[in-house]
Amino acid sequence: MVSSFVTLYKMSYDTEHVRNAGDTPGMITGIPTFAELLENPSLASLYTSIRHSATATGPELVGSTTVSKKTVYDYLHKLEQAGLISKVDDDGGAAVYTAEEFKLTLTVRETEVTITPELIEVIAQKSEYPAIERVLDDYGIVTFALAYDLVKAHSKGDVTIRQIASLTDLSPGTAYDLVEELYSILDLGDGSTPTTYTPSDFDEDEGDLLGEFADK
Question: Domains (ranges, CATH) in the chain?
Fold first, then answer.
């Protein structure tokens, strides 16, 4: 899975989009590590933990994760080398890290999808959500990122579940399950079950929806 993502990344990668966020953005340099971040929930979870804590040390992360101490420090080294975390202080000999914000934009079939820390946080939880894991494993990160954006549009009433399925090539059942799981994680809607669709939701103008969505 990592190798196929890296191939796509080389084809679609725009260096001007892959930067840390902020007033003085720096380049994200470790492409293999970035690819692993998208494929490895444990690595994604570690990055997310640092981001949520604002700062964190190795010993703190060892005590709060399920991976081994060696793995924690290997992950910290990878993330730092890639520019995804930075050392900001020293706490009694332990390096203090902060997570860097980032945005990665990919253009696929004239549709732009964006990888953000918020999406990484969802990926970190994929083993707990069957539909998310199925879409990531069977369709890949680009389809999942597009579906993620469409689910947020669905919560605003902009698209139907059938349209999400059509635009992502997912089955209507998988699209529904994905919407339900992402609603739960992202706390979308009013807590009720996501609205499904009727045949009238899928009209002849729907073929232009992908272009309209890409323009937003």
Answer: 2-102 (1.10.10.10), 125-215 (no CATH)
